[in-house]
Amino acid sequence: MLDNINHTASYIKSRIGDFEPEVGIILGTGLGGLVREIEVEKQLMYSNIPDFPISTLEFHSGKLIFGMLGGKKVVAMQGRLHYYEGYNMQQITFPVRVMKMLGIKTLFVSNASGSLNPDFKKGDLMIIEDHINLQPMNPLIGRNDSDLGPRFPDMSEPYKYHLINKGLAIAKQNNITCHKGVYVAVTGPNLETRAEYKYLRIIGGDAVGMSTVPEVIVANHMGLPVFAISVLTDEGFPAELKPVSVEEILAVATAAEPQLTLILKELIAGL
Question: Is Phosphoprotein among the key words of this record (predicted)?
Fold first, then answer.
């Protein structure tokens, strides 16, 4: 795998010249608009990058964006990969490893998720302080390459407290409703049943989604500090459960995106 990572990173470097990103950003479902805030210097389609998986979702662009944001050099994934698309965990997390090889020092992740906490409403933001992984595979299964990270990486602080606290402070200063909570990762692509929502809340979840955790595991494996934030696009409260469509989820994510963008932009500027 290391050979593939280095090969892909070398190809990208040949296309971006001496641009060395300090920050990596993964943009979740309906949240690609942050790119409008980036002073873009270069764009690469996933489909043109050797060994790079291609996003199969029509609402994920599938581009690597290089440019300036908040005075920092960034690389943003406009379109992420999911287990339910048929990729294995090593493929899903391959871009994180490549971004690390390109030089990033911090990883920022966004996603759209469903609220499990009755105090967290649709349209609110939630900074992830911890997670519960219910996905069936782990990206670190298999032979460990010590050049990438340790065999048994510590996960006592998968999301950095100082970034969480700064993010909450930025939200408060700007009158943005933003919580912190525990994210539960499931496979999807179906949304959860009434009984599943109840179970996920009982085991300690505040929000549920289908991404993020594999990338966070690999980032921690490689020693990358992580900040992750969710837009709560629907509500999984068993007593009040209503059908929800992808179109509704995308609409809520789009409406909340400017607030999420503000938090990320100010956090990155303060690094």
Answer: yes
